[in-house]
Structures are given as C-alpha cells and as structure tokens.
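Here is the promised in-class demo. Please do not try to memorize the tokens; focus on the logic of going from shape to residues.
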C-alpha cells in the first residue's frame, strides 16, 4: 500500500490533537492505534457476501487446519474470487451499460458455468464472483463475451482482506520473520502500527495483516499463541488537494484549497490564518478529527466493515439514523410506511416536506 505524503508539517508540530491525521499510513495516534489509513476508493466496493472457501479441497489440493482458518501450504497459490470484465473497444463510452443483461448472463454461463454473482459497476464494467479454482482459471482466459471483445483482470481489493492482531511477544520480532511464519495461514503482508510521541515514532504491539481471501480469519496462531483477528477499519479518505472526503488527490478535479483556513489557491504550509473547515464550516482545520463530517465518514466506514455491506448502503443507513438539525425524522429518512388495516394495503409515502405527515389510514367511502 502506498505511503501517504506528510502534509502541513509546520502546523502539525503545534497541534498534537490533529497531528496524526496527516502522518504516513503506518503512523497513527495512540487512541487510534487499531485504525489505519487506506487510500482506496470505497465507492465501488460492494459487500462481500460470499462464504469462505469450502473446507473440502479440490482434487490434487492439500489443506491443513490452523485454528479457525483453513490454510494452504506456502507453495500453493490461493485462487481469486472476484474479477472485473471490461469492454475493449476504441470508444471509451462503450460499456456494459448498453448491453443486454440476458446476453451477458448467457455468455458467461455458457463459457465458464454458473457463477456466484454478476454485478455492474458504476464504470460500466462487470464484477464477477466465481465459485471455484477452475472458474477462476477459465475467466482469465476470456477474450470475448459473445461478439463483444473484453479484457478480464482480478479486482484490486475484493480478493484480499485486512485484520489487526495485538501481541506483545511480537513487539521485537522482525516483520520479515512474522510474515514468513504466518504465510501458511493465508497472510500475504504485515505492517506494524507506530505512534508518534514527543516527535518520535515508536513501534507498537499492533500489526496490520493482509490475507489472501475476501474475509479475514477469526484467529491465527503465532507459534504457541492463538491471536484473535480484529476488524480493520480505515480512516476516512480525504483529498489533500481540495480537502473533501471520498477521493484521493490523484483523481481530484477540484481546486487547491488550504487545509487550515479553507481558502482556495494555496496550501497550508505557511498559512497563519484563522482555522476554518472546508467540510463542516467549523472553526478547526479540515483534517481535524473533531470535525463532525469526519466523524460521520468514520461511522459510515465502520458500519460498512462491521455489517459487511456496500459503502453506499452504509452511508444510507448511517444518514437515516442521524437526522439533520432542523429537519423532521420523516424528512431525514424520506420514506414513511403506513399499514392500511381496513383494506390490508401498504401505503408508502415519499416526501421531502416537513409538513407532510401520515395522520391516519385511508378510509373507504360509504356506498
């Protein structure tokens, strides 16, 4: 994972409460030692609802049990579950948005068999979840769906997962040794969380593990010690250019905005103006963790991870549970349901007006 560039150095040295918001991805505040920044676009990440790989190995494969995780030998490659199918045409506007879903399903099932799921991403590409190693091998060989030329690649995030372990006995063990010993349990990468104290980076007993499966194991074994794997909850992704949430600066189309004063046209390196937040208009920097907008984004990501739902679903759920000041509950949720007891019909009313209410069920007119 790429290390985020350090920003606003001069400001951070005098603001301990917000310092860790701008550090590298492996350096976090002490209270957030179990959290980790991730610069990945969560918008196109659907929920991973697939069950873990079957405990019954395919012919010629050997597995061994390790706690709650079915691990592979280090020389065996774990197959991927999620693949992206993209149309390969000279016109970038030609996507699967304009292709019949019947044609897509028939072309895929006739080529590699029935798959677990097929979803269309916002980009117009197809996200396909396979069920076996054989299908994973076959789908990578696809060059066309019916008469449509395509390119198939593994999804960049859904085929792996991250979890956090805490072990004091591993504090002074080199990361290379930890990774070598845990690789038979599905671990592919390990990173130690560090904290900044008195201007110095200190190692902690918390480790970020990357696994080669969509779902992290419940626990792993480090030698004789059985360690629970806790959910990995990244911090909100904030653009270092426009200071808005939800996208990295590499893809930003906005204007350069100061993270300190929220004024466009300059960065915050030498800014000494009064603090002002771009996102909530509060009297603090745009990278402050006391920002209500930051807390909302954090809650959305937490809900997404813990409930295993898509980012858009998590956002709708959290926003529905957080009514906006000055608006009624009905307006915040936008959907009211009333049961018509006399006619046994369900009435669904959608309204944006605070004055619109459902006072009573509709009564039948007298004959």
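The designed amino acids, position by position:
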């Amino acid at each position: 994972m790429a290390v985020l560039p350090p920003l606003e150095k001069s400001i951070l040295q005098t603001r301990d409460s917000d310092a860790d918001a701008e550090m590298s991805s492996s350096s976090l505040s002490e209270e957030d030692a179990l959290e980790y920044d991730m610069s990945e676009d969560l918008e196109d990440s659907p929920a991973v609802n697939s069950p873990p790989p079957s405990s019954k190995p395919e012919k010629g494969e050997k597995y061994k049990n390790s706690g709650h995780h079915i691990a592979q030998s280090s020389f065996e490659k774990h197959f991927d579950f999620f693949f992206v199918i993209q149309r390969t045409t000279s016109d970038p506007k030609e996507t699967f948005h304009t292709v019949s879903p019947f044609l897509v399903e028939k072309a895929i099932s006739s080529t590699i068999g029935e798959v677990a799921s097929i979803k269309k991403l916002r980009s117009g590409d197809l996200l396909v979840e396979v069920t076996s190693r054989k299908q994973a091998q076959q789908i990578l060989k696809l060059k066309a769906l019916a008469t449509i030329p395509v390119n198939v690649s593994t999804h960049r995030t859904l085929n792996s997962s991250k979890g956090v372990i805490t072990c004091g006995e591993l504090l002074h063990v080199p990361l290379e040794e930890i990774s070598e010993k845990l690789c038979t349990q599905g671990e592919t990468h390990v990173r130690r969380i560090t904290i900044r104290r008195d201007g110095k980076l200190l190692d902690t007993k918390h480790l970020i593990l990357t696994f080669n499966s969509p779902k992290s194991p419940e626990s792993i074994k480090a030698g004789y010690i059985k360690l629970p794997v806790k959910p990995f909850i990244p911090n909100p992704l904030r653009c270092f250019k426009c200071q808005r949430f939800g996208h990295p600066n590499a893809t930003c189309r906005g204007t350069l905005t100061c993270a300190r004063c929220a004024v466009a046209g300059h960065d915050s390196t030498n800014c000494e103006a009064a603090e002002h937040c771009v996102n909530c208009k509060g009297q603090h920097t745009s990278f402050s963790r006391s920002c209500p907008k930051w807390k909302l984004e954090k809650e959305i990501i937490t809900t997404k991870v813990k409930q295993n739902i898509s980012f858009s679903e998590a956002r709708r759920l959290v926003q529905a549970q957080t009514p906006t000041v000055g608006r009624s509950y009905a307006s915040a949720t936008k959907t009211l349901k009333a049961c018509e007891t006399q006619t046994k019909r369900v009435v669904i009313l959608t309204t944006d007006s605070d004055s619109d209410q459902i006072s009573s069920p509709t009564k039948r007119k007298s004959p």
